[in-house]
C-alpha cells in the first residue's frame, strides 16, 4: 500500500505473511531478520552509513522538544527505548528488540550522541542494498496484524481549507446578510506533489500477492443475480441459468472432467482458473500460486453453514444433491450429511470456525459469533471453546482500554474476562438465554456497577 504524507516522499507499507514452515518462532529467528542496533562500522560499513544517517529516531525529548513526534512533552513513539541484552517476545504483538549498552553511538550535528536506544528497527541487508529508510518489524501475533491492516487501508489525507473572497470580506465587514460559515469551508482532498506525479504515471497504489480467488457459497437457487429495472423476466431467468457461479461451475467441471474430482472446492483454484467472462473453470496452464477463499458463513445461517462445512471436506461433488449423498443415500439436509460424515461429533468445527474468524474479526464480532455457536450449534464443551479462544474474544476490550497487557497466552486479567462475559450475557439475553444455560460456562459475579478500568491495578 502506498501512503502519501503532507510532505516528503511517498511511503510503501508491506505486510509479509510467512508460510507456516517459515514462521519466525524463536527470538534467534527475530534477531536474524531485525536489528535495532548501530551496525559495526568495520564489518558493515555500508549498513553503518545508512543506519547512522537514516535509521536514527529523532532526536526528540529534552534535546529537541519541538520534534514532530513530541506530544505533551513525551515522544509518541516512545524513544529513547531502554537497553535490553536480549530480544524478548511480547504477547501484545510486538517484540522488544535487543539494544545492548555496548558504547556504540552516532554523533549528530549538535554534538549529541545517539546510542542503540535511538535506532529504528531495520533489516541490515535491506538498508545495505537500498541505502534508504526501511523500518522492518515483526508482528508476532494476530492482534497486531489486524491493527496493521487497518493502518494499511487507512484513507487518503484530507485538509480543511477556507475559501476567501474579497466580496465575502465586504459582506462580513458590513454584516449585510447572515453568513453560512459552514458553506465557506470545504473539506477537500489534499494531493501533494509526489502523489500527483504518482497518479499521473499510473503507478500502482496497492497490490496483493499471491492472488486470492473468492469462492461463492449459496444454497440451491440462492445465488445473487443482477438485472436492470424493466428487463424482461424470462431474459433475466435465462441469463441466471446460463451464468454459473464459482460453486455451480465447480459442480459442472466435476461432472465433465474426471481429473477435476480430486480436489475440494477450497483447493480448486490452485489447479483451475476462474474465467470471469465465460463463468467457468479452466485447467491452470502456468504454475501460479492462488489462494481459494470460501466466503465466511455464520453458524446462525443454518443450512448454508452446513453446506460450507461439506464444501471444505467433500471432493468432486457434481451437484447439490450429490454433495449430500453419502454412501448412496441422499440426505434430507446438508446438516444431516454433516452428521453422517461425522463432521459434527465434537467441537472441532466450532473450534475451526472461531479460529478462522479470529484472524479477521474484532473481539466484538467474535462474541456475536460465539453466541451464535452457543445458541445454534449445541457445542459439547462450550467452556473449552471459551478458554481456547478467550484471548481473541476479549481482544478489543483490552485494546479499547489502552492497556498493553502482558498476558501469557491463555491468561487474561480477570477484570477483562469478566467484562467480556457480561457482554456475552447481554447478547444472550436478547435471545432469551443466560450463560448458566450452557454447561460449565464461567459465570461472572453479579454486576454491581460499571467497572472503572483505571482505578484497578491490573496492568501487569
Ligand atoms: Zn520521538
Q: How are the strands ordered across the major sheet? A: 1-2
Q: Provide the low-confidence segments as ranges.
A: 405-409, 451-460
Helix content: 25-40%
Class by alpha and beta content: alpha+beta
Name every ligand kind in the structure.
Answer: zinc ion
- Summed over residues and divided by their number, the pLDDT gives a mean of 83
Oligomer: single chain
Taken in chain order, the helices and strands follow as EEHHEEEEHHEHEHEHHEEEHHEEHHHHHH
Largest sheet, in brief, is: 2 strands, antiparallel
Rg (CA only): 29 Å
Terminal CA distance: 36 Å
- Compute the number of structural domains: 4
Shape summary:
globular
DSSP summary: helix tally? 16
What percentage of amino acids are in beta strands? 5-15%
By DSSP, the count of extended strands is: 14
Please write out the topology.
Layout: E1 2-3, E2 11-12, H1 27-33, H2 45-54, E3 70-71, E4 74-75, E5 105-107, E6 113-115, H3 124-130, H4 142-152, E7 158-162, H5 166-174, E8 185-189, H6 193-200, E9 211-215, H7 233-242, H8 246-256, E10 272-275, E11 280-283, E12 290-294, H9 303-313, H10 320-323, E13 325-326, E14 329-330, H11 334-340, H12 348-358, H13 363-376, H14 382-393, H15 395-400, H16 414-430
Parallel strand pairs: 9-12
Antiparallel strand pairs: 1-2, 3-4, 5-6, 7-8, 10-11, 13-14
Amino acid at each position: 500500500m502506498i501512503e502519501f504524507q503532507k510532505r516528503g516522499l511517498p511511503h510503501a507499507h508491506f505486510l509479509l505473511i510467512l508460510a507456516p514452515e517459515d514462521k519466525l518462532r524463536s527470538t534467534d529467528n527475530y534477531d536474524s531478520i531485525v536489528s535495532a542496533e548501530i551496525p559495526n562500522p568495520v564489518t558493515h560499513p555500508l549498513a553503518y552509513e545508512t543506519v547512522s544517517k537514516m535509521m536514527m529516531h529523532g532526536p526528540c525529548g529534552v534535546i529537541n522538544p519541538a520534534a514532530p513526534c513530541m506530544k505533551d512533552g513525551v515522544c509518541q513513539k516512545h524513544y529513547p527505548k531502554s537497553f535490553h541484552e536480549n530480544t524478548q517476545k511480547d504477547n501484545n504483538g510486538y517484540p522488544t528488540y535487543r539494544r545492548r549498552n555496548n558504547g556504540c553511538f552516532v554523533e549528530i550535528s549538535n554534538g549529541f550522541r545517539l546510542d542503540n536506544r535511538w535506532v529504528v528497527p531495520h533489516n541490515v541487508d535491506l538498508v545495505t542494498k537500498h541505502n534508504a529508510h526501511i523500518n522492518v518489524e515483526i508482528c508476532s501475533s494476530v492482534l497486531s496484524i489486524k491493527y496493521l491492516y487497518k493502518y494499511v487501508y487507512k484513507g487518503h489525507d484530507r485538509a480543511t481549507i477556507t475559501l476567501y473572497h474579497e466580496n465575502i470580506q465586504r459582506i462580513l465587514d458590513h454584516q449585510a446578510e447572515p453568513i453560512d460559515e459552514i458553506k465557506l469551508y470545504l473539506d477537500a482532498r489534499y494531493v501533494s506533489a509526489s502523489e500527483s506525479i504518482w497518479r499521473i504515471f499510473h503507478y500502482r497504489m496497492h497490490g496483493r500477492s499471491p492472488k486470492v480467488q473468492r469462492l461463492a457459497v449459496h444454497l440451491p437457487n440462492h445465488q445473487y443475480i443482477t438485472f436492470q429495472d424493466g428487463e424482461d423476466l424470462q431474459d433475466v431467468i435465462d441469463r441466471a441459468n446460463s451464468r454459473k457461479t464459482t460453486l455451480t461451475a465447480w459442480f459442472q467441471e466435476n461432472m465433465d472432467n474426471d481429473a477435476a474430482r480430486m480436489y475440494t472446492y477450497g483447493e480448486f483454484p490452485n489447479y483451475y482458473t476462474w474465467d470471469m467472462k465465460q463463468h467457468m473453470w479452466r485447467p491452470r496452464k502456468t504454475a501460479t500460486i492462488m489462494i481459494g477463499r470460501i466466503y465466511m458463513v455464520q453458524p446462525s445461517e443454518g443450512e448454508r453453514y452446513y453446506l460450507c462445512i461439506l464444501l471444505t471436506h467433500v471432493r468432486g461433488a457434481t451437484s447439490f444433491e450429490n454433495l449430500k449423498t453419502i454412501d448412496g443415500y441422499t440426505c434430507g439436509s446438508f446438516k444431516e450429511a454433516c452428521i453422517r460424515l461425522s463432521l459434527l461429533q465434537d467441537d472441532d468445527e466450532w473450534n475451526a470456525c472461531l479460529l478462522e474468524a479470529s484472524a479477521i474479526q474484532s473481539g466484538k464480532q467474535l462474541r456475536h459469533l460465539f453466541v451464535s455457536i452457543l445458541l445454534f450449534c449445541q457445542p459439547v464443551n462450550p467452556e473449552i471453546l471459551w478458554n481456547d479462544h478467550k484471548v481473541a474474544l476479549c481482544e478489543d476490550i483490552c485494546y479499547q482500554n489502552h492497556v498493553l497487557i502482558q498476558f501469557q497466552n491463555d491468561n487474561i486479567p480477570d477484570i477483562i474476562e469478566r467484562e467480556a462475559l457480561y457482554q456475552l450475557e447481554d447478547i444472550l439475553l436478547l435471545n432469551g438465554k443466560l450463560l448458566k444455560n450452557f454447561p460449565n460456562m464461567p459465570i461472572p459475579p453479579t454486576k454491581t456497577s460499571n467497572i472503572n478500568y483505571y482505578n484497578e491495578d491490573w496492568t501487569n
